[in-house]
Protein: RN213 ligase
Organism: Rostratula benghalensis
Amino acid sequence: MNNPDQPLPTFDEVLLCTPQTTAEQVELFLRRCLIPGCAEKKIYTMLYADELTYDVSSRAEKLFQRLQRYNSCSTYRLVILCNCEREHSYIPSAFSQYKVHMIPQRPLAEIQRYLQHHYRVAASSGSAASVFKDNMCVGIVASKRAGVGK
């Protein structure tokens, strides 16, 4: 957020993990992040890594250790986000030595303005985003209860 014009991460910098995420997908992602010369100061993020299966998580940890051991350059930037309610699953446990408790450094309103700047589609573009509030092309719908039609 230090530069409002800097682009948000692209699809190759974010891996949204589910129980169906394969070991090959995680391997390709980690290689892009950890092989010297590939990172280009990008921030690579694994979202919901706690949802990976045991086998995929184990293979990911072994690959991470192997790539890190042979990587003479420690300039990679890898962020792994997990659900705090699943902190004892494989990935959060395996990477607990790197754990950092994150508290947002900016007020919520400022974060929202930053995201609106990047996710708003021009009204004249004829995009499907025009049906959403403020021409936003993304949104989050959440519910504490499952199956309520969201």
Remarks:
- The chain has a mean pLDDT of 81.
